[in-house]
């Protein structure tokens, strides 16, 4: 990272609710269109100049659109901000700042699936900043429902990314995560593509996820408005 105080930050989201949540914190916002047709929301957050991009769900879309946005905006750092499913230790509303992203679908399909782990590390300075935030309480003042109960907690640890929607703690993917990626805190569908694009462009990056559901009871959590 060129500076611990970046001036240009790319924030990528996948869902409208994620884009809206980030957009609420931007000032002086305006729309800007890429020559390909992709639309960005440009604005400011404190000292940052921000480019906010909403992409289609999935790792391939995340890789493509992150690459496109990087070329367009030339950011100092990039963040993927959104929701995820909790795998262990976390509860609804908690936040996970990823130390690394596991590409859990990498492997060999033999008599039994044999994982060949691929992991993308978050930038060391961003991990340090996340740990500082986790020890404090100031960040909670920015939450839309600042007085929600129970009070959210920040976790700094691994997140797994793949193309599967996991709806049960007894499903095949949940068992794979427990067996081969046992320190995974949350699971999502875009982090691998995002981190891959950031890595190839040598940009400091991190995936930050709010827990909107757990491995069991996903439908009930979604109906409750937990996203």
Q: Going across the major beta sheet, what is the strand order?
A: 5-11-10-6-12
Q: Describe the largest sheet.
A: 5 strands, mixed, barrel
- The end-to-end distance, rounded to whole angstroms, is 32 Å
The H/E string reads: EHEEEHEEEEEHEHEHEH
Shape descriptor reads globular
What share of the residues does DSSP label as strand, in percent?
A: 25-35%
Number of helices: 6
* Number of DSSP strand runs: 12
Low-pLDDT ranges: none
Q: How large is the radius of gyration?
A: 17 Å
Helix content bin: 25-40%
Structural class category? alpha/beta
Instruction: Kindly report the average pLDDT value.
Output: 90
Give an overview in words:
The chain is 26% helix and 34% strand. It is of the alpha/beta class and 227 residues long. The strands form two sheets. Strands 5-11-10-6-12 form a five-stranded mixed β-barrel. A two-stranded antiparallel ribbon has the order 7-8. A hairpin with a 5-residue loop joins strand 2 and strand 3. The protein is globular and about 55 Å long. The mean pLDDT is 90.
Structure summary:
By secondary structure, this protein is α/β, with parallel strands linked by helices.
Question: Could you list some keywords that capture this structure?
Answer:
227 residues; five-stranded mixed beta barrel; two-stranded antiparallel ribbon; 6 helices; globular
Reconstruct the topology from this structure.
Blueprint: E1 8-13, H1 16-23, E2 27-33, E3 39-45, E4 48-54, H2 59-73, E5 77-86, E6 95-103, E7 107-109, E8 113-115, E9 119-121, H3 124-135, E10 154-161, H4 172-180, E11 186-188, H5 191-200, E12 204-214, H6 218-223
Parallel strand pairs: 1-4, 1-5, 5-12, 6-10, 10-11
Antiparallel strand pairs: 2-3, 3-4, 5-11, 6-9, 6-12, 7-8
Helix pairs in contact: 2-5
């Amino acid at each position: 990272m060129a500076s611990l105080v970046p001036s240009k930050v790319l924030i990528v989201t996948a869902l409208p609710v994620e884009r809206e949540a980030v957009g609420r914190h931007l000032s002086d916002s305006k729309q800007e269109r890429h020559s390909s047709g992709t639309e960005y929301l440009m604005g400011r957050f404190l000292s940052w100049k921000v480019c906010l991009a909403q992409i289609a769900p999935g790792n391939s879309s995340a890789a493509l659109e992150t690459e496109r946005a990087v070329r367009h905006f030339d950011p100092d750092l990039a963040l993927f901000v959104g929701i995820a499913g909790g795998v262990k230790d976390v509860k609804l509303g908690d936040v996970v700042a990823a130390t690394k992203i596991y590409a859990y679908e990498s492997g060999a399909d033999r008599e039994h699936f044999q994982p060949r782990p691929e992991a993308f590390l978050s930038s060391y300075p961003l991990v340090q900043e996340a740990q500082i935030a986790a020890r404090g309480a100031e960040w909670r003042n920015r939450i839309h429902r600042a007085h929600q109960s129970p009070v959210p907690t920040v976790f700094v640890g691994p997140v797994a990314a793949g193309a599967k929607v996991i709806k049960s703690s007894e499903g095949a993917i949940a068992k794979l995560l427990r067996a081969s990626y046992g320190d995974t805190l949350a699971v999502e569908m875009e982090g691998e593509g995002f981190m891959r694009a950031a890595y190839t462009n040598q940009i400091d990056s991190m995936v930050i996820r709010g827990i909107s559901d757990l491995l069991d009871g996903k439908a009930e959590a979604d109906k409750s408005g937990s996203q």
